[in-house]
Amino acid sequence: MDARLNLFGSPLLGTALRHLNSAGKAVTESALPTATQELVKLRASQINGCGFCTDMHTKEAAKAGETSTRLHLVAVWREATVFTDAERAALELAEQGTRIADAAGGVTDEVWANAAKHYDEEQLAALVAIIAIINTYNRLNVIVQQPAGDYQPGQFR
């Protein structure tokens, strides 16, 4: 399977992706735990049906030491006992931030308040940014039907 458009061959998209990568780097270097970052990116990618990002963030999380049990249970995190309360709050924020069109009000005050119990203002800013960034990547990859399965950890560093 080939992508409809080479995201890396387009000068315009190359410029846009460099800016998006810079924004992502700010989050990566934030105080938001790496495990939380990868879990959020994985969950949003699952919701959006982005095979490329699901593949990428599963492999990146595993390389960073995430367990296979936790990775397998991200899609059903509400029923899983392997996530901390803080991670659960981040996953719920990611879900509501990803499914904006499904709920007229967007992210509820209750979900925001729960996340704010576990994360300081800078970490909340990082969560908001990472949710927005991964949703952008998901949409790019889904639109062009970027194939999944060949990603190697660290491939874009």
List the total number of helices.
Answer: 7
- Tell how many strands the DSSP assignment holds: 0
CATH class: Mainly Alpha
What order do the helices and strands follow?
Answer: HHHHHHH
Question: Overall 3D geometry?
Answer: globular
CATH overall fold name: AhpD-like
Question: Whole-number radius of gyration?
Answer: 15 Å
CATH superfamily: AhpD-like
* Strand fraction: under 5%
Which oligomeric state applies?
Answer: single chain
pLDDT under 50 segments (min length 5)?
A: none
In terms of structural class, how would the helical and strand content be classed? Answer: mainly alpha
State mean pLDDT (0 to 100 scale). Answer: 94
* Residues in helices, as a percent range: 55-70%
Q: How many domain regions? A: 1
Q: Note the gap between the termini.
A: 24 Å
Main sheet makeup: none
